[in-house]
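Hey, can you fold this one?
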Amino acid sequence: MGFFGKLIGGGLGWAFGGPIGALIGVAVGSMFDKSPSGQTSGSSQQRHTTEADFKMSLLVMMACVMKADGKVLKSELDVVKRFLVANFGEDGALEALKILKNLLEQPINETEVAMQINQYMNYSAKLQLVKLLFDIAYADGEVHSTELDMIKRISDIFRLSYQDFDSMKAPYTKTTDVNWAYKALEIEPTATDEEIKKAYRRMAMKYHPDKVHTLGEDVKKSATEKFRSINEAYESLKKNRGIN
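Sure. Predicted structure:
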């Protein structure tokens, strides 16, 4: 497992320990190469979130969402594979899919895992993680209530505000929710034009891709999609209201 082997060996920090480390350890087996001293190369003392910490956490959380309805269909795995290719590249996706399939066979306590993530990840990284979970849930065009409930429980443990949760969800409901643009900008439909402009500036800063640049180019690229959805929401409201 070249891509993920190098990723873990060179950059796994806090995720090496706790419930995530235990799950990943079983899932990847010999991927944890031993150093000459006999110590595993990751360091549980590293407290900032590395690219490897984020991606391992994402795979575990993806497994939780996929198993939420008690079954994992081949069609879901096909959707997930396309998602992984888009985010990790062809080689990385194949390795990630192997790890994910092993994770799907393990019992996972999503509360313990989410609590570990909440302890170490900053707010911007947690927002991006939830955004990617929404990507998975809506990828096949048919989201299940159990998947949304799982993401909501994870979001609550992350201590994300309900406005942030609704903002993350809003772009996926454009065809069913007439107020999606307001939710995306975390404002009410009664907001004034000036309040809409202020909300846009605030949200553009909050979700700027540079907020997660330390998590790797793949994650930063995905964050750009949320940034674009903020622009789309603003342009939609400007058009509907005739705002200059």
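Residues 74-104 form the longest helix (31 residues). Let me know if you want another pass with a different chain boundary.
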